[in-house]
Amino acid sequence: MQNSLFVEDNSTDDVEYIDLGKGLGLRIIPGYKKQAQLYRHGTLIKAVSLRDKVAKRIFAVEVVELGAFQSRLADALGITRQTIHNYREIEKHFGFEGLIHGYTVADTKSKDKQKALHADSRPQGNKAQQVAEIRRQERLKQSGEAVETAELNFTVENEEAPSLSDEVQPFAQEHAWESTRYAGVGIYWIALLTHWNWLHLITSRFGTGWRIFSIFLLMASHNIRSIEQLKNVQLREAGLILGLEKIPCKSVVWTWFYEVAAQLKAKKLLAAYFRYQINTGLVGLWLWFSDGHLLPYTGKSKVHYAYNTQRRMPVPGRTNQVTTDATGRIVDFEIQEGKGDMKGCLLSLQDKWGDDLPRKPVLVFDREGHDGNFFHNLIEQCSPFVTWDKHVDKDKLSKIDDKDFAIDFAFNGKEYSVFEGTKEFKYGEKENRKSFSIRRIYLWNRTSKRRTCALAWSDESMALSTQECAEAILSRWGASENAFKHIQERHPFHYHPGFKLSTSDRQGIANPEIKAKQKEISGIRASLAKLYEASAKSKSEKKLVEIQEDIARLQELKRQCLEERKNLPAKIDASTLEDYKSFNKIDNEGKYLFDFVTTSVWNARKKMVSWLSEYYDEENNLVDLFYAITSAHGWVKNETDKVTVRLEPIQQPKRRAAQEQFCRKLNNLGAQLPNGKWIVVEVGDSPI
Length: 688
Prior knowledge:
Blueprint: E1 17-21, E2 24-29, E3 35-40, E4 43-49, H1 53-65, H2 70-77, H3 81-100, H4 111-117, H5 127-151, E5 175-180, H6 185-195, H7 198-206, H8 210-221, H9 235-241, H10 250-261, H11 266-279, E6 287-296, E7 305-308, E8 313-324, E9 330-337, H12 342-353, E10 362-365, H13 372-380, E11 385-388, H14 394-398, E12 407-411, E13 414-427, E14 434-445, E15 450-457, H15 466-477, H16 483-490, E16 501-503, E17 508-510, H17 512-537, H18 541-567, E18 571-573, E19 584-586, H19 589-612, H20 622-630, E20 634-638, E21 642-647, H21 653-667, E22 678-683
Parallel strand pairs: 6-10, 10-11, 21-22
Antiparallel strand pairs: 1-2, 2-3, 3-4, 5-20, 6-8, 7-8, 8-9, 11-15, 12-13, 13-14, 14-15, 16-19, 17-18, 20-21
Helix pairs in contact: 1-3, 2-3, 3-5, 8-19, 11-19, 17-18
């Protein structure tokens, strides 16, 4: 039955009004359709049928949360205060699903049939007893922690790795074959376990927090754009392949997330992950491409502005400074407030990873880094780099003789010709500027008949040829894959779970007095222009003298204004201004945690596509075949020593053969879970 938009007040004056406190009141309408009506300051805001047990439970929880006295509500509803307390505890630990139990609105089947039908998809057992056990365990834990706190004194750096009991290990619950439409996630599990030591990185820092990372793994691999969108997921089926018995309700998932985010370990986790990749050769060390990626903010709070390249305008948000290798695998990323500082990010790469690198990679970046001081800092740091030249004169390039382009090569299916020259730059302060020169690569795209220039520098230890410099800049901004666009299409790259805002340390704004002074100067110049025109047209000697006096006065005033404008500071702390609204800073802890998983899935995908290419020679369809395999439905069986994932076979014989060989390749890697179970994947028909 569809509820009306507005709650109807069908009570009469003789129905007793029960005061619940905090401006809340209750009327109980007797009769066959017994009803409870909730009022706030005399206005009816909610009505529920007391014959509906589930609605009654949820109603009791909601009314207490609004501020009603629990004892008065209990007397009005004819239940005990302990019952309401149990309802609230069940909702806290199990969400509203715990209050619902096996409730169904369907009347076409018997209650027993409904229970049997939904037995696997709903919480089992007496929730009051389960809550009592949870409270008992919490009391024991708190008493134990009190003793440990008195005896131990340690820093975060020396914190021991959390231990996991057998019950909370991934894939702890054994079961026979069960169907799941998310079986393809098992492919990612094998790659992450064997090549990235993924679960050890997580459990050694967060313990049972691995559960939220497994849910993020499902979201990243199946392009689920937010935690709220988990409502469209089959929770039991997804839980089987994630190592959980079942994905819990949304409120519990958020609880898992905040428990992990509150530990503030995201940056340490990322540093360990990036270092592991570099040391084990999972990312390339020859060319590193850096670029900023906009993370827009659409809320109402005041934040700094980043730049939207596609729209060519500033928009509220942050900038994710991402560094990738030549194949598009993510090497490092850092989220910065507002437009960010790409130059500082590039200079810091050597400080971050210098000790882990056998040699310094060639840094490749776009025109945002075009600056003499920045180039000189890179040279002082001995960091080789390649970038685009800025402010290139196209007319001069078009007049260069074709014969000067002496080196010919093909790249990404296009024909190029290049030759090399030099370009002068200056660095230092204005009073003490010095010159230096770097290589200038003249690049001619013969296919599209366009010419441009690139800039490069390398020391004697890494003698980059002219062609190598040209190929380096074309590898990222030519006809090759744009990693950011592909990540955004395939994964929820912009999603930020758990927004939190704080006052930004950057409160500097452009000095408004400069703008006011400039407006005054513009007015003086306009007045002078009129006086000059009047002076040229004047025929009266007396009038001409007056005009010249006014011109002299305005010229002196303009000189004073220019001097005053010069002495004004370019920026001021806007918090010193009246009626000022401070800039807010978006906390990145939750974003770093989610992007750690997105990065893991993206890099694993790049690795596995290269494995799949050994068994499938149609390059244009290779990525689509990979996503077809990882999106496949199937079955999963959890035994004492092994977790087996069986995928539905792809229909086309050639693609199915590649699928089977790819799964054999994965099984040969020997993926083992922390609890000692092996995880294997196979292709076949339904075992059920």
